[in-house]
Amino acid sequence: MDLKSNHSAPVLTDSAPLSKSRLGGIMKTGVLDDVRSSGWLDAMKSSSPPHKKFTKDLNHELSSPDPEVAYRTWLLKYPSALASFEQIANFAKGKRIALFLDYDGTLSPIVENPESAFMSDDMRSAVKKVAKYFPTAIISGRSRDKVYEFVGLTELYYAGSHGMDIMGPVRQSVSEDHPNCMKSTDKQGNEVNLFQPAREFLPMIDEVLSSLVKSTENIKGAQVENNKFCVSVHYRNVDEENWTAVWECVQDVIKKYPRLRMTHGRKVLEIRPMIDWDKGKALEFLLESLGFSNCDDVLPIYVGDDRTDEDAFKVLRERNCGYGILVSRSPKESNAYYSLRNPSEWEFPRTKFEMYSSFDLVLLEFKGKKRFLKDFFIYAVK
Ligand SMILES: [Mg+2]
């Protein structure tokens, strides 16, 4: 990812899979704008499930019109974490486990209104149980305060704004190594390390937030969310014919701020500081803060569903340490090792299908076996 601070075209720095629209520097400006626009529109269209495009390096069976056949084939490459339970447990023997969880689409369902992405009580209970035994952190694109409001568990560590706002355990060596890391206290009065590598961008982000709230106010369904170190513009509820208008609003604002960049997630465009920091870096920071940097006796597990989680999956893969688990109900290329999705998901009618995230469905399906997850972790440290 190109994160040069003097980059003049922030839209081009995103690592989004825009292979068809990835731009060179020799095009004329007018054409460039059109291509950029159509490229991002393509990406906007494909950024949310159901995702019907299958990746090129999976075998031809993935193009099967039968989604179940395609999914089963994809599972050969990204086996179900639950089906691979014994394998993971064997690998975890004698290792210290740490669990890292994305929020939206992983712990909570993807819903029409992002303000209503509540996690189920079952999920909260499962996370609470796991956190009893192992250090557990949420790494979300939401603001840290907001994701804490949703989760409501004091026993977790929280990293908001795609890891640009981390409240983690105190560790002297970490705070000395990171200039933006300071001692603070959490809501319970416990001493913590607060790390905000993009702190200097706060006034700029506030300006962008105000501009975008104003410029999108006439686009029906557009929602601008303040995530402290990034601004999210949701277009899930915008008619597709108006997606260009959303994109243009974001472009009009961001072009005034060369130190900001635009990325996109599931039906959301995000503006964030152009710093070399992402969920992968946040994961490394938290591992270091926990004293878990040594790969030999540590097994980090990261569960996530979105493109931004790929940075964390990649870190684990490159360190050859731990597992990324992709929550997905459709085949897609990933840096994760395993996947999660309810096996009977295709049997759900669409209305119910949309109600739950894949991870929720897994827990619902294995409701009587949630102990299974807990037992796994207990077993793993024996
Ligand atoms: Mg997510």
From TrEMBL:
Coiled coil segments of this chain: none
Biological or metabolic pathway of the protein: Glycan biosynthesis; trehalose biosynthesis
Keyword field: Hydrolase, Stress response
EC number(s) on file: 3.1.3.12
GO terms for MF: trehalose-phosphatase activity
Catalysed reactions, as listed in the record: alpha,alpha-trehalose 6-phosphate + H2O = alpha,alpha-trehalose + phosphate
InterPro entries: HAD-like_sf, HAD-SF_hydro_IIB, HAD_sf, OTSB-like, Trehalose_PPase
Gene3D superfamilies per record: HAD superfamily/HAD-like, Trehalose-6-phosphate phosphatase related protein, domain 2
GO BP terms in the entry: trehalose biosynthetic process
UniProt cofactor(s): a divalent metal cation
Transmembrane segments: none
SUPFAM superfamilies per UniProt: HAD-like
Enzyme class per UniProt: hydrolase
Record has Hydrolase as a keyword: yes
Keyword Hydrolase: yes
Family: Belongs to the trehalose phosphatase family.
Function according to Swiss-Prot or TrEMBL: Removes the phosphate from trehalose 6-phosphate to produce free trehalose. Trehalose accumulation in plant may improve abiotic stress tolerance.
Record NCBIfam families: HAD-SF-IIB, T6PP
Designated name of the protein: Trehalose 6-phosphate phosphatase
Species assigned in the record: Dovyalis caffra
Lineage, highest ranks first: Eukaryota, Viridiplantae, Streptophyta, Embryophyta, Tracheophyta
